[in-house]
Every structure is written in C-alpha cells, then in structure tokens.
Write a structure and sequence with these properties.
The complex is a heterodimer.
Chain A (H helix, E strand, L loop, with lengths): L1 H19 L7 E2 L3 E6 L5 E8 L9 E7 L7 H6 L4 E2 L6 E5 H4 L9 H5 L8 E5 L3 H5 L9 H14 L8 H9 L6 E8 L2 E10 L5 E5 L1 H10 L8 E5 L13 E18 L2 E17 L5 H30 L6 H8 L1 H7 L3 H7 L1 E12 L5
Parallel strand pairs in A: 1-5, 2-6, 6-7, 7-8, 13-14
Antiparallel strand pairs in A: 2-3, 3-4, 8-9, 9-10, 11-12, 12-13
Helix pairs in contact in A: 8-9, 9-12, 10-11
Chain B lengths: L10 H13 L6 H9 L6 H20 L7 H9 L1 H33 L6 H16 L3 H14 L3 H5 L20 H14 L5 H4 L9 H26 L11 H4 L13 H30 L6 H17 L4 H41 L1
Helix pairs in contact in B: 1-7, 1-11, 1-13, 2-9, 2-11, 3-9, 3-11, 3-15, 4-5, 5-6, 5-13, 5-15, 6-13, 6-14, 7-13, 13-14
Classes of the chains: A alpha/beta, B mainly alpha.
Chain lengths: ~375, ~375
Amino acid sequence: MNVRLLFTLLIICISLTGCSDEITLENAATPLAHGIDLDEHNKFRFYNTVPLFSKTTKKKSQENSGTAYSLRQSKAQQDAFSPGSIQGRNYQVLLIGKRLLQYEDWFPMLDVLFRDARNTVMDRVIAVDSPLSDVFDLNSKDQPMLPILLRGMVETKSKISETYSTTTQELHRQFHEKGITPYIAEVEIVEKKIKLKGSALLNERGKYEVSFGAQETVMLNILQKKAKPGLSLSYRIPDKPNKGPFATDMLSFSAEKIKTKVITSFQNGRFQFDFHIKMTIGLSEHLFPYDVARDAKKLEKQAAALMQAQIENVIKKLQKHQIDPIGLGLYARAFHYKEYKKVKDHWGKAVADATFHVKVDLTIGAMGPVK
Amino acid sequence: MTSNTGKSITSMQYIFIISGIQVSVSILSLPRDLADAAGTDGWIAIPIGYILSVAAGFIIVKVMQNAPEDTIFDLLSRLMGAWAGKCFALLLGVYFLSFMYDSLNRAILITKDWLLPNTQPYLLMILLLVPTYIVAKHGPQILGRYSEFVFFLSIWIPFIYLFTLENAHGLHLLPLFKEGVLPVLSAVPAMLYPSLGMVTTFILYPHLKNKEKAPINLLISNSLTMLIYLYITIICFVYFSPDEITLYNEPIVSILKSIEFRFIERIEVPFIAFYLFIFSLAWIPSAYIAAFCISWISGKKDVALPLQIFCIVITVSSFFFLPTFNQNDRLGLWIGWLGISIEYVFPLCLLVYIILNKHFQQRTAL
C-alpha cells in the first residue's frame, strides 16, 4: 500500500516537473549569431539572426536589431520580432563592432552569457571592421548563412594559425587574467562579401589596439606556443632576381615541427624574454632555381633571418601598444613571482619596458618531389 | 543491541560508503574554496587534509575496536552511563540530519540553477526523497550495495575531464608556495568539510565483515577521496586562470561547458542529471544514520518510522522554505565546525578516556 502510494506520487511528480520547464521547438527561436555594437549616437545596439524553418518565407533567416541598455534587458525587443521566444542556447558566433571596441570596459556587457547557466559559452568571438548592420543585412547570395560561414571561417583558419578561434569562455579568461591581453578573430566586408582579416588585439580593458594580418598572426601563434604543424609561410628572398612582373624571389614553406622555448629572466629592473624557435620545414614552392640538396644551409639561414625580423617586428608592435597577447605574464608569474606582483596591475607597461631576444632556427626537412 | 547477523558490509562497500559521503556535493565548490584561501597553491592543502583525516579515521577505528559487536552508543552507555549514550545519539542524529539536509539542499539548488530553473523546489525534494527512503530503510547492506553500484556507474566521469586539458596552462600552478606556507595552511580548513563522513564508522562498524581490515579500508577510502579531489582541483587550476577561478561558484561544472562534441551540445546538462547519483551518496547514508540514532534513543530497531518522519517534515518544510545559496553556504560552514568537533576532537578525547579508564581499572584490580 505504502509503496504503491509512493509510486503514484512519484509518477505524478515526474510528469509535473516536465511540464513547467518545457519549451516546444515551435515556441523557441534560436539565434545562431548575435552581435553587439554602438550606433552613431553611441547607444548600445544588439543584432541577431535566427534561422527560419518555414516554407512560405523566401529567406532562410530573420535578422533583428534594436537599441537597448544591455543584452538581457533587450530580450523583450528581440522577442518582439519573432513568433517564438528567443533562447540563447545555441550561439555559434558573437560579433563585436569596431565602434564598441573603441571603448574600454565593455566586457561586463556579456555577463548574461555566463550568469544564465543555459547560455552557451563556446560561441566564437569575432571583431568586425565594418558596421555591424551591414554584416547582418548582407545576406550574400554566394556565401552560406552568416553564422555558419563565420564559424567555419575561424575554425578552419585557426587550425593553421592564421586567426584565433577565441570562445567567450576563453575571452573571460583573457580579460580576468592579468598576465595576458585579449585577442580575437577579425573580419571585414569587402565587395559585399565577408572576408577574414586576421586577428584583432585588445588591451587589458578591451579597447581595440591593433590588427594583425594572416602571417603576423602566425608569428604570434608561434610565440604563444599555439602554432601547430601545417601552417604556411612565404618570404621574398632578398638576393634573388625578379623577372618581369613575376615575384620570382618567392619562397614558401610549411612547418612540420615547431618548438618554441621561452626563457624568462629579470635583470636591471626589467624583464627579459628569450625566445628560441626551432622549426623543421617542408618547402612548398621556390620560384627561383636553387640546389636545395647541396646548399640547404644557406637558404635555411636566409629564411630564418627573414622570419626572425618579422617576429621582432611583431614584438615591437606589441610593445608599442603595451599589450601582451603572448601571455608573458604567466611566465613572469611562474618564474619571477615577486617582481611580477609589483607590476601585475599594469603588466602592459612592464612588457613595453622588457627586453626581448629572438632566435630562429630553420631546418629544411623536405624539398618536395621536384628538385 | 547486538549486530544484525546476515546484514554485513564487505570491505569494498565500506570503502565506497565513506568515499561517497566525503566526495558527493562538497566536490563542487572545493577548487574555488581552496583557491580563495591560497590561490593556485590551494591543492597542496589536499594532502595535508588527507593526513589529518586518515589520523582521525584511525582513532575512530581504534575506539570501535573496544566494542567490536556494538555501536558507539552501547559503548558510551557502558563507559559513562545510559545518559551519555543517549546524548551522543541525539547529537550524532542532529549532525547527520543537518548533513543530509545540507546536501539535499545543495543538490536542489544546483539542479534548479543548471537544469530546471522554473520547477518548484518541493517537487525536486519529493523526487529525491522517494529513492532515499526506499534505499535507506533497508539498512547498511543495501547502502553498501548502492554506493558500490553508483561508484562503478560513474567510473567514466574522470576521463571526460581529460578533454579540457587541451586548453590547459600548466604555468598556472607555478610557483609553488608563492606567498609562503601560511596561505596553504589557511586552506586546510576548506579541506575539512569535504573530508567529513568517517564517523559513519561508529554506526557501521558492527556490520563490517572484516573488522580487522577496517583501518586499511579507511586508508583506502581516504586515499580514493584525496585522489579524486586532487585530480579535479588540478584540472580546474590549470584550466581557469588564478585570477578568474574564484569567480565561479561550481568550477567543476563550468569547466564542462567548454567541452565540445559533435553529437551533443551543452554537455553539462546530462552531467548534472547524472551527478545526482553521486550527490545522493551523501544524503542517503546520512538519512539512514540519523534515523538509526533516533530509533536507538527510543529503544526500537526499526528505522522506517523516523525516516518517514524526516521525509515528510523535510518535504513539507521545503514547500514553505528552502535555504538560498548564501544560507546554504552558512549552513555548510556551521556543519563543518560541528563535524570537526564530532569527527576529529571527540574520538580523540574518547580514546584517551578509554585508555585512562583501562589503566585505572588495572590499577584497582591490582
């Protein structure tokens, strides 16, 4: 009797709990991309794009935007355009307009993503170097849906180190960790198409500082020890002749093995970081005739010098903007904790003061099937 | 009251009951609590807490070896009179009842936060208490089997956490003892609440199959608990930056959100649902022990009646009031101090008393 009563109760309860928290697919609108920016009056503006599952609509997605104070506060406005209720459970990308990035301390605007446990935190964060309204209203005929296009773009290119696939969760870490400054992917609109630009580097409070192109981003990835085999680099070898309109001094290679060693020291009141990069490369093209089998050493040295110069240039840019996307603060904290503690609240300045030494060693591992 | 023959617990079950009570809910906030006290050095406090709890465990077993067939209450009654046994039974009953309530409360808060924000807490309470009653009323042997079952059911969980290592930063852990030894020592109290539970030995000891193996079993279960804590804490520390980990309430759940599989999104949802099994390892044994304490005071053998009363009172009260996260934290702190006095201080005093008592008895005999 007792057990039976309990079981009836149990079954009733189970069905009841299911009822109060359910949402049917018809009543849900799941935006796959959302964006935040400021308008021309510096008012906070949100954007989102919701895929439509309807036979009668001509377009496959619905774009909404509006002015609001914050993301969650804008929910009513977002809902107002849609037959369903907006659910932040499946964001693929988060777009951030350049106008917003001109200001510091915007990160708390994303609080709802972390505080509402049902929101995803694995959406890729991308800076947009064009007005966000243009991106959301683009609906390019020869590019896939915006969220899918962008997600694929950063996913594949970050695998070959040409951009960053920074998730919201990772951005949270980069903002709160004092020894690193945030870095995200950057796109722009070129001829009514979305194009990947490379990466955008922000300062410790989130203000946009500088953009890096594909190859500079690769360099940064190498310094961060994030670069994986498969990345590709091209350099023009200085002592080779150009023939006609063709850049016949071009050398391209891909990395087969990358090893970055960072040595941290503290001397005369400033930090010193020594990078030693060892790479085994496979040649993918050289437009000038060269006997790699006999004279590999010379080419290795030439390419290494070019790469070293480019890395030094990248570091100079970082120092000029007082930013540290490499995360050198982590090394400083791990190995020189006392000195780091003194400067951790203005780590960017400490990086600008620091001395850097870079050494690149290349070894040609393969020259390809032709001589 | 002598032990119930036929209702005995194997060594393995005993290990899992103790580890289950220890790990269960307290693992959720442990990494954050340790980081609060000592930053990324917090994990060093885990082995220190481990040594303390192993020592306390040995003392508890040593006390019980003086009365291998009785519970602690019979022993106390014999030593100091019936009132001492009853007082301690009441104290232990209240302790385990609050332990049970605290873990149930925490589990419901977590479920509400992550899974069912719009569901009424009393419904969850009823749903959780029904299996609690069914398992707990059958006594120690079924408790042991349940703990064993849940343990083997969840053995795959640690492997999932390996997926987070692709974003790990080992540099977070360095340098060791960055602020010296003091912060590490100040993190040890944060380890004590998650180590509570060994005192169940007081009640379970008469039911053990291999009593001579009890100390080694306690050592194994404490080591198992320590390994789990160490593993989870270090994973959280290398994943989250030392500057941000204190911002998460349940870092061990938040970290799951970063795992991506092609076939499932929001992997933390099935995890929380599954974790309820592990959480239940805290409140089901403590429900039984609290009920046992109450029934011992009234001189009856049956635990079903007190259990029914517990379940009904808790359910009805949750209809009107359920502690919030902050209140639950304070309750946990309070239980922590009560637990320290019952599990660490009291057994030591009792052991000293027993030894002195024997000593004096021998002298008077001479």
